[in-house]
Design a protein that fits this description.
There is one protein chain. The chain has two domains: 53 residues; 98 residues. By secondary structure, it is an alpha/beta fold. Strands 2-1-3-5-4 form a five-stranded mixed beta sheet. Helix 1 packs antiparallel against helix 2. It has six helices and five strands; from the N terminus they run H-H-H-E-H-E-H-E-H-E-E. It is rod-shaped. The mean pLDDT is 86.
């Protein structure tokens, strides 16, 4: 997009020079301004259409669920919490700075070791998951999962280690 914007500006500049050369005097200035105005109106019209088509002004409102759920979980969780997540991992890092464990990267035979080491350091396990991730996460990381709450399609879970 930046290259297209720059190219458009060059075209407008060059068209202005062309009009100056071809039509001398005051009429050339008027024609140049009219051409620039028309091109600007066309460009803005296409941009407005794209903004509406892709709902660009609504994206922030739709994505607030990520920030809201992370801040909600951050208020609930104790300071010594490890948060299991995948889709929420980027938002958790950005909005909370809490330690994150991506469940799809934990090998089944390493899960018990992770639980033991976390308990030694005083950490407890939680999960912040989008609804379609819950079953896979529970299958990947066995334990007793207790649902603490839901904010729209995102749920917060406490995971108690299995002996």
């Amino acid at each position: 997009m930046p290259a297209l914007i720059l190219a458009t500006l060059f075209v407008v500049r060059d068209l202005g020079r062309l009009f100056e050369r071809s039509i001398a005097g005051r009429g050339g200035v008027w024609l140049r301004r009219a051409a620039v105005t028309i091109l600007l109106a066309v460009a803005l019209g296409f941009e407005r259409q794209s903004v509406e088509r892709f709902r660009l002004l609504r994206v922030a409102a739709l994505n607030m669920v990520w920030a809201d759920s992370c801040q909600w979980a951050d208020r609930i969780l104790p300071s010594q919490a490890l948060v299991v997540a995948t889709e929420m991992s980027g938002a958790l890092k950005f909005y909370t700075g809490r330690p994150i464990v991506r469940y799809e990267r934990v090998e089944p035979d390493k899960w018990q070791t992770l639980q033991t080491r976390a308990a030694e350091k005083g950490y407890r396990w939680y999960a912040l998951l989008v609804s379609q991730e819950v079953e896979e996460a529970q299958r990947q990381l066995p334990g007793r999962w207790t649902k603490l709450g839901t904010l729209r399609q995102i749920s917060l879970w406490q995971i108690e280690p299995t002996p």
